[in-house]
TrEMBL record:
Biological source species: Carboxydothermus pertinax
InterPro entries tied to this protein: YidC/ALB3/OXA1/COX18, YidC/Oxa/ALB_C, YidC_ALB_C
Membrane insertase YidC/Oxa/ALB C-terminal domain sequence ranges: 27-208
Transmembrane annotation, as ranges: 24-45, 96-114, 168-194
Stated name of the protein: Membrane protein
GO molecular function, one term: membrane insertase activity
Membrane topology listed for this record: Multi-pass membrane protein
UniProt-annotated location(s): Cell membrane; Membrane
């Protein structure tokens, strides 16, 4: 992980120097810019992931029908599901790659912030937080992380989905994210909240395009 940690540190320091050059010296702003850059780089993968997840949610009733129809024949069940995915252009594995890429970035940012050598520690402040390497003393960022995670998860779910497991995850995941964020550096909370906000915006347009396609298909 050290090369990635060093890379994150180098990018953050250079983004900080950029904020300094434009008259807004702030490591928190540097993290926001870093988040935007990562989002831009991962946009195609995230877009494919969101479209696939939304399509999977919409296909839940048909998937349930196939599972019930071939419950005693796993081979036919799997074949019918694959045909359903192919018919609707869905790849059930497309959601894995963005998560696999994001995980080491989160770990590297976490490690970098804990031992960060700020060029100017005075500019590591973020509103009510004295230093973004410290925890949020008022838990505002963890609360925002949980709230934005919930909103994004809710938007990715099909309105007709009555799966109790999905509903449990809808509430469990935000609570878990918020609880974890309480013990992490505030800089990581900033990254997560900003990333979630951008994901929510992207999910809105994905949902809109999905609905448009569905409406065209019924005409």
């Amino acid at each position: 992980m050290q090369p990635l940690i060093d890379a994150i540190t180098w990018v953050l320091n250079n983004l900080y120097l950029f904020t300094k050059n434009i008259g807004l010296p702030s490591y928190a702003l540097a993290i926001i810019l870093l988040t935007i850059l990562i989002k831009i780089l991962l946009y195609p993968l995230n877009h494919a992931q969101m479209k696939s997840m939304k399509a999977m949610q919409e296909l839940q009733p048909k998937m349930q029908e196939i599972q019930n129809k071939y419950k005693n024949d796993p081979q036919k069940q799997q074949q019918a599901l694959m045909e359903l995915y192919k018919e609707h252009g869905v790849n059930p594995m497309s959601g894995c790659l963005p998560l696999l890429i994001q995980f080491p970035i989160l770990i590297a940012l976490y490690r970098a912030l804990y031992a960060f050598k700020y060029l100017n520690p005075a500019h590591a402040k973020f509103f009510w937080i004295a230093n973004i390497s410290h925890k949020d003393p008022y838990f505002i960022l963890p609360l925002l992380a949980a709230l934005t995670t919930y909103v994004q998860s809710k938007m990715s779910m099909a309105s007709s989905n009555n799966d109790p497991n999905q509903k449990i995850m809808l509430y469990f995941m935000p609570l878990m994210i918020g609880w974890i964020a309480m013990s992490l550096p505030a800089g990581l909370g900033i990254y997560w909240v900003v990333l979630n906000i951008m994901n929510i915006i992207q999910q809105y347009f994905v949902n809109k395009s999905t609905h448009t396609i569905g409406e065209r298909g019924t005409k």
